[in-house]
Amino acid sequence: MFLETFPVGPFQCNCSVLACEETRSAVVIDPGEDADRILALLSDQNFKPVFLLHTHAHLDHVGASDAVQKTAGGENCLHEDDMPLCNILGIQAELFGLPEPTTPTIDRFLINGDRLQFGKETIEVLHTPGHTPGSLSFFIPGSGLWTGDTLFAGSVGRTDLWGGSHPTLIDSIHKKLLSFPGETCVYPGHGGPTAIAVEKERNPFLQ
Fold first, then answer.
1. Is the pTM of this model over 0.90?
2. pLDDT tens digits for 97-111?
3. d(Cα 118, Cα 50) in Å, to the nearest integer?
4. Using an 8 Å Cβ cutoff, are 137 and 177 in contact?
5. CA 41, 99, 13 angle in degrees (round to 5)?
6. How many whole angstroms separate alpha carbon 87 and alpha carbon 57?
7. The pLDDT value given to residue 191
8. What pLDDT was estimated at residue 138?
9. Whose CA, among 19, 23, 133, 155, lies 20 to 30 Å from 73?
10. The CATH number of the domain where 39 resides is what?
11. Strand 155-156 vs strand 75-78: parallel, antiparallel, or unpaired?
């Protein structure tokens, strides 16, 4: 499977492009900014996005979703509990003095346990609330776990924003994420990758 992760936008959100190399079907996780860069990668590799997946609806994770979809296609997917955030992208942008992005049309609401197919690859959806009410994580067997702003290398997501709950976040991590094998690679929403075993042993927020 093809996998490329790169930071986008002023908040350096990690955007990931994953694709079945046999069928060229792809998913984009958190197209938060830099639509031109995302679209160039899809075009250069002749990938056709099937899903645009969002770990949550903060501005830095959905800002380029509409532009990517209008050019390359794919279903915009989000948990329904994050729609209040998605609907106020203009307010989010104004708080940081940033241009207002076009609010994406959400084509599909994801729930815990959903399985999405792209080519011969499968993604498992996990509802991991706490950072936001509708925060999601995505697991791809043999590739890793995308945790958005729920779990970082050596840290966890902030919970002082709208809808955040620290007890809920910690519960999501312990019950949903730390249950994966220790060698599972973790791709957070910001910063470098880590592994479940490393976070179990060293993350001070999880001890």
1. yes
2. 999 999 999 999 999
3. 6
4. yes
5. 45
6. 9
7. 98
8. 98
9. 133
10. 3.60.15.10
11. unpaired
Rounded distance between C-alpha atoms, residue 95 and residue 181, angstroms: 39
- The H or E element containing residue 85 is helix 83-86
Residues 82 and 132: beta-carbon distance below 8 Å: yes
Alpha-carbon dihedral sign for residues 141, 174, 127, 34:
negative
Q: What is the enclosing helix (H) or strand (E) of 18?
A: strand 13-19
User: How many domains does the chain fold into?
Assistant: 1
| 78 token code pair | 């989000």
Q: What is the mean pLDDT of the chain?
A: 97
CA atoms within 13 A on the CB side of 160: 1
- For the chain, what's the residue count? 207
Helix (H) or strand (E) holding 151: strand 151-152
Instruction: Determine the structural domain holding residue 6 and report its residue range.
Output: 2-206
Quick: pLDDT tens for 109-141.
Answer: 999 999 999 999 999 999 999 999 999 999 999
Q: Would you call 160 helix, strand, or coil by DSSP?
A: coil
> 138 forms bridges with which residues in the sheet?
125, 146
- Token pair recorded at residue 83: 């729609």
- Site of tokens 């950072």: 131
